[in-house]
Amino acid sequence: MQLPLWPEAASAVATEIDYLYIYLTVVSVVMSVLIFGTIFVFCIKYRRRGDEIPEPIHGSLRLEITWSVIPFLVMLTFFWWGAKIYFLNATPPPNSMDVYAVGKQWMWKVQYPEGQREINELHVPIGRPVKITLASEDVIHSFFIPALRIKHDVVPGHYDTMWFTANKAGRYHLYCAEYCGTEHSGMVGWVTVMEPADYANWLAGGGSSGTMAQQGERLFEQLGCSSCHLLDRQGRCPSLRGVYGSRVQLSDGKTVQADDAYIRESILNPNAKVVSGYKPNVMPSFQGQITEEGILQLVIYIKSLGITNAPGAPTAAALAAPQNGGKQ
Amino acid sequence: MADTHAIATGHSTGHSSEHPPQLRHHFDDMHQQFDSATFGMWVFLLTEIMFFGGMFGAYTVYRSMYPEAFAATSNFMNPAFGAANTAVLIVSSLTMALAVRAAHLGQQKFLQLMLVLTMIFGTAFLVIKGFEYHEHWVDMKVPLFPGHWAWDGPLAPPQYAHQAQILFCFYFFMTGFHAVHMVVGLGIMTTILLMARKGSFGPAYYTPVEVSGLYWHFVDIVWIFLFPLLYLIGHTKNLI
Amino acid sequence: MSTALQDPQTTETPNYLNAEYGWKSWLFTTDHKRIAVLYLISISVMFALGGVFAMLIRLELLTPQGDLVNSDTYNKFFTMHGVTMVFFFLIPSIPATLGNFLVPMMIGAKDLAFPRINLLSWYIYIAGALFALAAIVMGGVDTGWTFYTPFSTTYSNTFVITAAVGVFIAGFSSILTGLNFIVTVHKMRAPGMTWGRLPLFVWANYATALIQVLGTPVVAITLALVGLERAFHIGIFDPAIGGDPILFQHMFWFYSHPAVYIMILPGMGVISEIVTCFSRKGVFGYSFIAGSSLGIAIIGFLVWGHHMFVTGMSMYAGLYFSLLTMLVAVPSAIKVFNWTATMFRGSISYETPMLYAFGFIGLFTIGGLTGLYLGTLGMDVHLTDTYFVIAHFHYVMVGGMVVAYLGGLHFWWPKITGKMYPEGWGKFSALLVFAGFNLTFFPQFILGYLGQPRRYHAYAPEFQVLNVMSTAGASVLGIGFVIPLVYFLWSLKYGKPAGNNPYGAKGLEWTTQSPPTTFNFDVTPIVTEEAYAYAKHEETHVG
Question: Which terminus of chain A is more solvent-facing, meaning fewer CB atoms within 10 Å of its CB: N or C?
Fold first, then answer.
């Protein structure tokens, strides 16, 4: 008979959250014992013995202030510690390895730049920061790994990201944590954290369809993108070489950063941001013709056409080579 | 129990001479009844502010997300209609305020005249709105009705098609809910007018007139906010 | 007539229950006490219905596999459990029953300010409930009580619009009740009943009414937009056509967070009344308890984002909402400390209502403290959408609100019906509820930290033992709820006649006969003393 009472911790952040949890619990227990104990004592000491009428006690400003301010200060320590972890979780380090996960009713489709694809499984190495880019094909999902104490909602219409660094090998639950329909409780899987050498071996098994960039390149040709964006000589559309990471000037005068979200939007709603010097209504929308997975492959491919160097962004050459699990 | 003194007031021994027929049993006197009724109407209007406010809030959020799109849709609003409606409603609030005053002073004929004028202006508002909706219907600017929505032409940048549809939905919801409140207001005014014709109101009792006046002014004020928000901001083309 | 105030009641003595007979005298009544009874019956039916769904959920969760019913059916169970419990039981509960009955009496009035609107709000509630029942009977809704988009607007194949219409309509019932209470407390207080002398139950219902009036219209418009989006595919909440699903969450939680304070504040008011009576002592820190009700009402409007920490909102928004969530805990803590201090040097007796009050203080404290876990940003990332959240809100809603409601029902039952319930059974049920409740929901804190997500039809096998414990507890809890139903009904015929004031409590309602006459007071009382003036001489200050 299994009776687990505490989840495994597979990252430094998870351990820190455990300490925070213990701290919260200790404070809560102390508060509760104080209150319940006091009431218990009062119940016995001041139980009704006859017809006595007790002396009224109107109140005490000093007590009220004391037992407002002190608990609030204690709560501020909760707030501060929690905020610190939250901020840490919000910014992936620049050398993170990328993984892409698409949530769709009712499965997780995970893709690696090297080309592996998995369903409801995620393999990561120990010690390397992993940045997961999340997309939804349909409704809101949530990518939850209890052993790492992290989750992030996967909201349709844009990309969400989360990151972690696992520090303990093992196999851990992966859950969808935002109710998404019939098989919400079936949208579960496993995260396998591996020693670096094992991870490199696993990765070398490769995907049968080529790297994500290669898959993206095939899509790029199939959907006709190359006829304009690579081969065009008439200036109908902007070239995509080096566009990733650059600042793009739009026809309304604004400038935007060409990141994953920009590329995704340009594919699905091209008239939303038209590049300066080009006309609207030339590029068709691919809404409904391409899956979120496909869009991610195209994003990786476009990255491989050259990146204008945002600090920390990997170079095209680094992207083209398969990622080695042990490399830092 | 002996700690609260109880005194006999007039009520427990039946109707006294200072017990007007409109005084409801649970109130001590007409003043309390009037006070409660007007306060109650203010609280109700507060809930209406939250209701319309929710819509205004959602509209504001979308507007700040897609400012150019919303500015483009302003080109299809007809500020002439909007301005006419604003003028009509402001005048109707004037006649309503005069009606309340007339009731207070017991001026029966003037009261009825002002109520009728208020209703005429209120109806005029709805008629103008009807013409305006009809113009949108013909111009293919009514979303969700196949055959009556199209976003094209020189004033309709195509990249804003989705947002334009959302904006026009907001436009019809907000003005539509407002118009429903106007219709309810006309119903209320009808009731008040009928009561006025029976001579129910005078200095001693004019609570329903006062309370209806508050409601009418509120419906007017909502329009005062709707008009610039939906018609004026971002309007670039001069439509007659 | 005035001598009847002193005598123990017989059923022949004229009171609001026997003033008129016949269904018309009930369905067209404007007496706030009769309307309270109408509400009492209606919400008890909805509570029973919600409880049936709860039992079905817990039965399914006895085993890790989804083997009792299929997934769609299970999803409907938890949705309908939430919808009936939140909108058709918890939100109306105390204000519409005990509040309706007692607020006019506590301030020395003959009725609420707008008795006909009071009746209307009951009819509106019934209309809303009929729509919700229709949705259930036609096949149910499976979106969760939170109706998140785009699932509810585009993907669900169930009767979302019907259910949303039911909730929309019921919202107006809540608004009108709130409006009535606000005007009543402002305008209908008896001479000498100043704001500073109001019973804390009145303050609690007043603060609740403020929230009802300001918050409910927002959820009304939100649900209206969901219905319109579902019917006409406008695109407000659907990202595929340019909409924003997170906007829905902001609008929804803007109401639904204050709504939880609608649910708990009246319960806190009940506890203030019970603790003072059964300590036979004035409350400690009256102005702080009254002020804290208002404080909770106001700050409660500013914290809704703590339901959305993992949706991708900006970190700075997260900081703001987390900080304010800590702040809103302070007024609740003040109440708990003040109730405890009220017992200091009191004269404490342990009748059933007081047992429920003790239960409330214990369970609400735990529920409130676990709310702090959820308000702590990094911690919430792990805990949100797990069983920890379910445990937290059941501790405050059931361990807090329902326990307070039962305590209040027991406390004022003699006043409402003129009969006493059997005290032995009352104490037994209170203990059963306490034990069953903890066994049901405490394991869920552990499950949540372990990572069992909420709204899961099937779960990982290693979680079974804790789930079985929880189901066992739910059975005990269910029995604990059924027994009072039985003996309350039994007491209507066989209960000992209660006098005007069986507990020797302070408060204008106890000066009337039990059950009261239709107009409550033969003569309008004049109030000359503070609330809870159990002792007559000078009060002392401590500290």
Answer: N
Sign, CA dihedral B230-B233-B234-B236, equals positive
CA distance readout (Å), B90 to A109, A262, A303, B48, C361: 60, 48, 60, 20, 55
Which tokens go with C63? 């085993």
Q: Once rounded to an integer, what is the mean pLDDT over residues C458-482?
A: 96
Taking 70 as the pLDDT cut, the residues of chain B under it are 1-18, 234-240
**What are the φ and ψ backbone dihedral angles of A49, each rounded to 5 degrees?**
-115, -20
Mean pLDDT of C136-151: 95
The reported pTM is: 0.90
- pLDDT of C262-320, one tens digit each? 999 999 999 999 999 999 999 999 999 999 999 999 999 999 999 999 999 999 999 99
Q: Of B3, B152, B159, B165, which to mutate for an interface test with A (greatest number of A Cβ within 10 Å)?
A: B159
Tell me the chain A residues in contact with residue B158 when contact means C-beta distances shorter than 8 Å.
Answer: 271, 280-281
Å from A281 to nearest chain B CA? 7
Which residue carries 């918050």 as its tokens? C215
What are A30-38's contacts with CB under 8 Å, separation 24+? A31/A71, A31/C365, A31/C369, A32/C362, A32/C365, A32/C366, A32/C369, A35/C336, A35/C337, A35/C340, A35/C361, A35/C365, A36/C362, A36/C365, A38/C340
What per-residue confidence (pLDDT) applies to C537? 58
Report the CATH number at residue A242: 1.10.760.10
Is the Cβ of A271 closer than 8 Å to some Cβ of chain B?
Answer: yes
Which residues numbered 187-206 in C keep a CB inside 8 Å of some CB on B? 187-188, 192
Verify whether the Cβ–Cβ distance A272 to B159 is below 8 Å.
Answer: yes
Question: Count of CB contacts below 8 A, B vs C?
Answer: 134
pLDDT digits (tens, 9 = 90+) for C322-378: 999 999 999 999 999 999 999 999 999 999 999 999 999 999 999 999 999 999 999
Separation between Cα atoms, residue C453 and residue A175, nearest integer Å: 7
Residue with tokens 């804290």: C292
Nearest CA in chain C to B28: C188
Q: Pick the residue with more confidence: C8 or A172?
A: A172
Task: Tell me the residue type at A125.
Answer: P
- Write the CA distances from A223 to A227, B19, C425, C428, integer angstroms: 9, 85, 75, 72
Per-10-residue mean pLDDT of chain A, 328 residues long, equals 90 96 97 96 92 88 95 96 95 93 94 90 95 95 97 95 96 96 94 93 78 91 87 80 89 87 90 85 86 92 80 48 40
Structure tokens that stand for C304 in this block = 């809704």
For residue C186, list chain B residues with Cβ-Cβ distance below 8 A: 36, 39
Instruction: Share the mean pLDDT of chain C.
Output: 93
* Secondary structure element (H or E) that encloses residue A172, with its range: strand A170-176
**Domains, in order of start, for chain B:** 61-232 (1.20.120.80)
Tell me how far apart the alpha carbons of residues B100 and B110 are, in angstroms, rounded to a whole number: 10
C32-511 has CATH 1.20.210.10 classification: yes
Orientation angle between helical segments B30-65 and C245-279, nearest 10 degrees = 150
| Cβ–Cβ contact C186 with B under 8 A | yes
Q: Which helix (H) or strand (E) holds A249?
A: strand A247-249
Q: How many domains does chain A have?
A: 3
User: Do A273 and A297 fall into the same domain?
Assistant: yes
- Are the C-beta atoms of C492 and C91 separated by less than 8 Å? no
For chain B, say whether C115 makes contact (Cβ under 8 Å): yes
Structure tokens belonging to residue A286: 């691919």
* Contact (CB<8Å) C519/B26: yes
Range of the domain at A239: 212-320
- Rounded Cα–Cα distance for residues C299 and C326 (Å): 10
How far apart CA C160 and CA C227 sit, in angstroms, is 8
Give ipTM to 2 decimals: 0.92
Between A17, A86, A139, which is nearest C155 by CB? A139
